Amino acid sequence: MAIADLLATANREKRTVLTEVESKELIREAGIPVVETRLARSEKEAIRLAKLLGFPVVLKIVSPNVIHKSDIGGVKVGLTGERQVAQAYNQIMHGVSNVNPSATIHGVSVQPMALQGIEVIIGMYKDSQFGPLLMFGLGGIMVEVLKDVAFRLVPLTRRDARNMIREIKAYPLLDGYRGRDPADTAALEVALLSLSEFIEKHPSIKEVDLNPILAYKEGLLAVDARVILEEDQG
Ligand code: ADP
Ligand code: MG
């Protein structure tokens, strides 16, 4: 779906939250590598897509009413066969209907299990005074507990992108800590710059949360995405 169609659909349905599947389409358009993610509307379709994409796969709830998918048992990783996919599908559906019976459910997303990498986060939100800000940090407790993050105003310069990656305290973990592979910081810089450009081009985007992006020795892959739109775009 083209960007204009995605935005129009959300607008027509009077929602500002894009689902993971929609958010990833948008983020791919921004030029950031995203794990291939397809929407399944039934158990049968989930199995068909899992076989198409190749095992192991991940299944996740797709609902504009569910923001934190794993909090409600809405993420099942490392599924290695058809039976596991069927079971995960039913567990996810039961889980959601227990927690939030009135949730609008689009289905489940099916995606390949990405190789392990260093989990980083790239985010964007709009400050009422300064306007759009990009955020960078390491995934998990580094951001949530330690608040070890760097911010820069959009539009980002190359220098901004370079510096914000290097100024977080956890930077040594990206730089090949104790003989581990370093992360591809050049690819991270490109991702930050690409998102900055995309935000400039699309003022109807209010918030972006790419959490996590897996950073590898070469390249990176976003495995989760959440985009929130401004209200009422006419
Ligand atoms: P949430 O809405 O809870 O943030 P996520 O989509 O981020 O849900 O999934 C939770 C966790 O599962 C991620 O932080 C990541 O560690 C793992 N995960 C999600 N998708 C994939 C994937 N395609 N490949 C490998 N791991 C994944
Ligand atoms: Mg996430």
Topology of this structure?
Blueprint: H1 3-12, H2 20-29, E1 38-40, H3 43-53, E2 57-62, E3 75-79, H4 82-99, E4 107-112, E5 118-127, E6 131-138, H5 141-144, E7 149-153, H6 158-167, H7 171-174, H8 185-201, E8 205-215, E9 220-222, E10 226-229
Antiparallel strand pairs: 1-4, 2-3, 2-4, 5-6, 5-8, 6-7, 8-9, 8-10
Helix pairs in contact: 3-4, 6-8
This protein binds adenosine-5'-diphosphate and magnesium ion.
Keyphrases for this structure?
234 residues; alpha+beta; Dna Ligase, domain 1; D-amino Acid Aminotransferase, Chain A, domain 1; 2 domains; 6-stranded antiparallel beta sheet; 4-stranded antiparallel beta sheet; 8 helices; 10 strands; 36% helix; globular; binds adenosine-5'-diphosphate; binds magnesium ion
